[in-house]
Write a structure and sequence with these properties.
By secondary structure, this protein is of the alpha/beta class. The protein has 7 helices and 28 strands.
């Protein structure tokens, strides 16, 4: 590996060094879906709050099973139960409170009725078809840990405690800059030598998917002074500044120079494919703090891969969300053959799950300009440097979720 090329591990260490979680903010539960919990939540109530029936049937004391019993009361969900008269049963419906004196429920299909009498089979065990108080949650226990993403089930868990407002971490603010005079926005006519900006909508979607918000979108002309001004303006508004292009070694690639003059360049040029010219650094902000800077290559596949490898964990660190720190890793059988040189290769693959294991099928053209290889990609197959992979070999894959 060339001395000036850094591994992904070193790049991540430089990127996340000193990153702390952003401030918390209160949010109504109804609009908190997808946000990250800033503080752990302690349960206020037992769930369920009382012993209740798991089905429609009859509540009785298990000692009285195997005989005819009079029906002494009828219990629907939401109705308080009365103590069960000795030697009797209660007609009960799903969710109904178990009356004191009863210790089991028999489903209605197993019971014979004769007016206000019910015949039960013998051998009904105590606790049958009961949902015990506190089975799901006990009051005083940790309901959800800080750093948890509030998915549908988590929202339901909070609502079950009567909670209407939660403390969530503020979304990281991101400035997304596109460099290159040859790159123009869709909707405009293409002049000779120009291309449409595919990176901007792709990266915006990924950044928002990871949990951040894009607060600034801007084109940057191929001029050092303009680049310097745009980076400074972006850092004043954002926690993260992400640029595409301009980090290579060409005469019109000004991002690296402007970053070095304004702030700090922590790392440049990675031993990965795609995405070797990737800059990581910091830009000063008016309050004395720093905005994190990630300069992605201009090739769209490099931007796609770089977003998963670097933007996702950076957003996770700012949100205090451990689940975003690393992509889930799977072992799969390679349905392809390849060989690497000095750089670690992240190949776009589709996964097939079978009873015999997971198969990774690589898209035929892995060039960094072929964005179609990312559309159906489920994972990135990680091929170490100086390696040879043969058909059927086991490989590591990073699942893109």
């Amino acid at each position: 590996m060339a001395d000036d090329l850094q591994p992904v591990k070193a790049a991540l260490a430089a990127l996340l060094d000193g990153v702390t979680r952003l401030a918390a903010e209160p949010l109504p539960l109804d609009v908190a879906g997808g946000r990250v919990l800033a503080d752990s939540v302690t349960a206020r109530l037992d769930v369920p709050p009382f012993d209740n029936s798991a089905m429609d049937g009859y509540a009785l004391n298990s000692r009285d099973a195997g005989q005819w019993l009079p029906i002494s009361q009828r219990i629907t969900a939401g109705q308080p139960a009365k103590p069960l008269a000795p030697g009797s049963c209660a007609r009960i419906f799903t969710g109904g409170e178990i009356p004191p004196g009863a210790d089991c429920v028999v489903m209605q299909e197993r019971v014979e009725r004769d007016d206000e009498l019910a015949l039960f089979p013998a051998g009904i065990p105590a606790g049958d078809n009961l949902r015990r108080r506190g089975r799901d949650v006990s009051a005083g226990a940790v309901l959800l840990e800080a750093g948890q993403t509030l998915n549908a089930a988590a929202l339901g868990h909070l609502a079950g405690q009567g909670i209407t407002e939660v403390s969530v971490t503020r979304r990281p603010r991101v400035a997304l800059l596109s460099t290159g005079d040859e790159v123009i926005d869709p909707g405009q006519p293409l002049a000779p030598g120009q291309i449409y900006n595919s990176n901007r909508p792709m990266l915006r979607q990924l950044i928002e998917q990871f949990g951040a918000e894009v607060v600034l979108v801007s084109r940057v002309a191929d001029d050092l002074e303009t680049t310097r001004r745009c980076l400074a303006d972006a850092a004043a508004q954002a926690d993260m500044v992400v640029s595409t292009g301009g980090v290579s070694v060409g005469e019109e690639d000004h991002v690296k120079t402007a970053l070095t003059e304004l702030g700090e360049l922590d790392l440049w040029r990675l031993a990965i494919r795609p995405g070797k010219p990737l800059a990581i650094g910091r830009l000063p902000r008016p309050d004395g703090s720093s905005a994190r800077f990630v300069g992605l290559p201009g090739n769209p596949v490099s931007g796609f891969v770089g977003a998963w490898l670097f933007l996702r964990p950076l957003v996770g660190a700012l949100l205090g969300c451990p689940a975003l720190a690393e992509l889930p890793q799977l072992r799969a059988y390679a349905d392809f053959a390849t060989r690497t040189q000095a750089r670690q290769h992240y190949m776009r693959v589709a996964l097939t799950f079978t009873t015999k294991g997971i198969t990774a099928r690589a898209f035929r053209d892995q060039n960094s300009g072929v964005l179609s290889s990312c559309i159906q990609a489920d994972a990135l197959a990680v091929i170490p440097p100086h390696s040879e992979v043969r058909q059927g070999d086991e490989i590591d894959c990073l699942w893109l979720v």
